[in-house]
Design goal:
This protein is of the alpha/beta class. The protein has one domain (about 55-285): Vaccinia Virus protein VP39 (Rossmann fold, 3-Layer(aba) Sandwich), CATH 3.40.50.150. Helices cover about 40% and strands about 20% of the residues. The protein contains eight helices and nine strands. Strands 1, 2, 3, 4, 5, 6, 7, 8 and 9 form a nine-stranded mixed β-sheet that branches. β4 (about 150-155), α5 (about 160-175) and β5 (about 175-190) form a beta-alpha-beta unit. It is globular and about 50 Å long. It comes from Sphingomonas pokkalii. Keywords: Methyltransferase, S-adenosyl-L-methionine, Transferase. This is Methyltransferase domain-containing protein. GO terms for molecular function: S-adenosylmethionine-dependent methyltransferase activity.
Length: about 290
Amino acid sequence: MSGHALLNSVDGLYGQFVHVSAALANCLDQAAISALGYDAIAPAWLRYRVQGTPDLTTYVEAGRLSRASIAASLNLIGRRLGEFPRILDFGCGCGRTLRWMRDLTREATVWGVDIDAEAIDWCRGHIGPARFEVTNPVPPLPFPDNSFDLIYALSVFTHLDYPGQIAWLTELRRVLAPGGIVLLTFLGYTPEKYAARPHGAPLRLFNERIMASASLDIWSFLEPAEVEQLDRDGFVFLPYRDSPRDAPYGVAYHRPEHVHDAFGKILPLVSYVPDGFCDYLDAALFQKPG
């Protein structure tokens, strides 16, 4: 089976399975949530949408590690997470990361935006005093110029086609205040990383401690011609079967050089760390001049 067929087949079959089992998982989760003292835990079907599995531990630990990785990425450029008065979680989903940011709202204004109206509605009812807005799949955002000092987009640009990435980074620049920081994550590709991977290695989500139930190799979706395209152009995008034409959605791979050359023209790149986000995604920090 080709990489494209595998990607679409697994996405469809696994999605059907999870939608059937999500309601049961949600009922079973209630005991664990109460026993562990968790709060603001999204229901199983919303967790599946943001992480490909309804697994409770993955949701909790991924959010915790995401906050830690944001802080660590900022520390590399001498900044602290607590120093930003206006923060935007771009593509917040059902608040997997934002639920770990609630302490910041004592000193900062924190916003979350997403195209998933159901997820945003849930966040509004459970993750206060952060603020939330539903957005469209294409720009603009419902904010004036220079609205935020820190914007992070976690596993968002890993799913957009190239025109969508350029459009959204340009829009993030618009709403970013002078001197502000944008943190993006990427599926970073290098020939060395691709060649060194064990054949059939599992898709590693965040790190070995919080393996999700999926056991796919994210690199196996690439056909030889697409690996050549990555080597040549630095970018390749594989759309999902049901991806909308006006705002394609799928899996995007980048070479670090491509991020520097293409995105650095929109916002200056100040830090790029391979596997620097949760030991899995590449972490890139951009800063708006001023």
